[in-house]
């Protein structure tokens, strides 16, 4: 129990030590792109900036040296049945885009964050700029009703975040390789 507490404490300290205030990367900085990024974090080597695209609200990673932007923009749908909430309208399929953000990135271009679908459930994600062409959804703890990844170690072996349990109480979460 003491080891688990120390691991959770270390993960919390890591997240706090690496936290940055949000900042805006305007289209002037992103030559050839008609978007602006609400930046959440920058790698220590300043090669990667992560956050969310401000209009579509989807996760974005910007490789600063190549001026390359990758946005995780996906469509989603959900079956909506108003009768479940006492409504009298007919059920229908709702369509929209998944939203989310990247919260942290390391010098290797591995970003972590969250993506949320039309069902409003958040899932922790990881994306590696140099080796991936899509994101990976991280395993969520048993009983989680929402989860986010908030920090990543420099070697990518530890990811820290949190999840909400069935009572909507936030709890620390750590992923290790």
Please characterize this protein's 3D structure.
By secondary structure, the chain is mainly beta. The protein has one helix at 2-18, and strands at 23-25, 37-42, 48-53, 59-63, 68-71, 75-80, 92-97, 99-105, 110-116, 122-128, 136-137, 146-152, 158-164, 170-176. It has a five-stranded antiparallel sheet with strand order 1-2-3-4-5, with no helix packed on it. Strand 4 and strand 5 (68-71) form a beta hairpin. The longest helix has 17 residues, at 2-18. It starts with a helix and ends with a strand.
Shape: flat
What's the count of strands? 14
Multimerization status: single chain
Radius of gyration: 18 Å
- Written as H for each helix and E for each strand, in order along the chain, the element string is HEEEEEEEEEEEEEE
Mean pLDDT: 83
β-strand amount = over 45%
| Low-pLDDT segments, ≥5 res | 15-20
Q: In whole angstroms, how far apart are the ends?
A: 21 Å
Number of helices: 1
Binned, the helix content reads: under 10%
The strand order across the widest sheet is 1-2-3-4-5
For the biggest sheet, the summary is: 5 strands, antiparallel
Give the structural class.
mainly beta
């Amino acid at each position: 129990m003491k080891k688990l507490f120390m691991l959770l404490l270390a993960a919390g300290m890591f997240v706090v030590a690496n936290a940055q205030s949000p900042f805006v990367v305007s289209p002037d900085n992103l030559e050839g792109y008609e978007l602006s990024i609400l930046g959440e974090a920058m790698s220590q080597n300043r090669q990667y900036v992560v956050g969310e695209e401000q209009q579509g609200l989807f996760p974005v990673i910007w490789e600063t040296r190549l001026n390359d932007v990758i946005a995780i923009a996906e469509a989603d749908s959900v079956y909506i049945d108003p009768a479940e909430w006492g409504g009298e309208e007919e059920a229908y399929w709702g369509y929209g885009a998944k939203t989310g953000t990247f919260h942290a990135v390391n010098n290797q271009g591995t970003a972590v964050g969250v993506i949320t679908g039309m069902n409003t459930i958040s899932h922790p994600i990881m994306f590696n700029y140099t080796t991936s062409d899509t994101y990976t959804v991280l395993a969520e703890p048993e009983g989680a009703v929402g989860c986010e990844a908030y920090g990543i170690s420099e070697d990518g072996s530890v990811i820290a975040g949190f999840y909400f349990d069935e009572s909507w109480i936030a709890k620390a979460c750590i992923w290790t390789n």
